[in-house]
Amino acid sequence: MNETIKTILSRRSIRVFRPEQIPAEALEEVVTAGQYAPSAMGAQQWLLVAVRDRELMARLGEDCRRTLNREGDPFYGAPAAVLVFGEADGYEPIRDGSCVMATMGIAAASLGLGSCWINAGKEFFPTDKGKQYLKELKVPDGYVPVGTLILGYAAETPQPAPRREGTVIRIG
User: Fold this and answer.
1) How far are the Cα atoms of 62, 66, 77, 116 from residue 69, in angstroms, in the given order?
2) Among 16, 32, 26, 14, residue whose Cα is nearest residue 114
3) Which of 19, 71, 83, 92 maximizes the CB count within 10 A of its CB?
4) How many CB atoms lie within 10 A of CB 172?
5) Are 115 and 149 in contact (CB under 8 A)?
6) 106 CB-contact burial (10 Å; exposed 0-12 / middle 13-18 / buried 19+)
7) H or E stretch including 118?
8) pLDDT of 71-102, one tens digit each?
């Protein structure tokens, strides 16, 4: 089995992170990989906001938690994240942004980083408090949240869930 497929099969959603920050170079590699994700019509209608600022991560997580009336840190203490947005009037902003998210998750795993796709931003960023963050993060008008990929070094790696039966049809 080749290394890419091994990485895909071993990647897990990480929700417990070690405290150390990831290198800026690793975050840049993950973001670059995301920029090479497939996009409808080759339009690349996304915006990626890379964050390594711990204070911002903590503040954003707490405000998101409070605004959405949820328990616990929605970012699980991860020291870094990439927030993915799609052009609202783009051809396929959510699907394209989803390809970016998946590509970055595989890239992160290939670098020895843990990651998890977080959807809390979809609900948070359209709120008044969320809109304040969009300004702070320099996200222009006309973008919709797709997801947040939290990143760090895994403190715990879960076992894979068994694969569901009946999800593949083979012809020929």
Assistant:
1) 10, 5, 18, 21
2) 14
3) 83
4) 2
5) yes
6) middle
7) strand 114-118
8) 999 999 999 999 999 999 999 999 999 999 99
pTM of the model: 0.95
* Tokens describing residue 49: 């906001």
- Please tell me whether residue 154 adopts helix, strand or coil conformation: strand
- Let me know: does 65 contact 73? Beta carbons within 8 Å: yes
Q: Which residues are 144's β-sheet partners?
A: 86
Radius of gyration of the chain, Cα coordinates, nearest whole angstrom: 16
CB atoms within 10 A of CB 118: 22
Residues in the chain: 172
Tell me which amino acid residue 121 is: G
Answer yes or no: are the C-beta atoms of 119 and 147 closer than 8 Å: yes
Chain segment 9-19, per-residue pLDDT in tens: 999 999 999 99
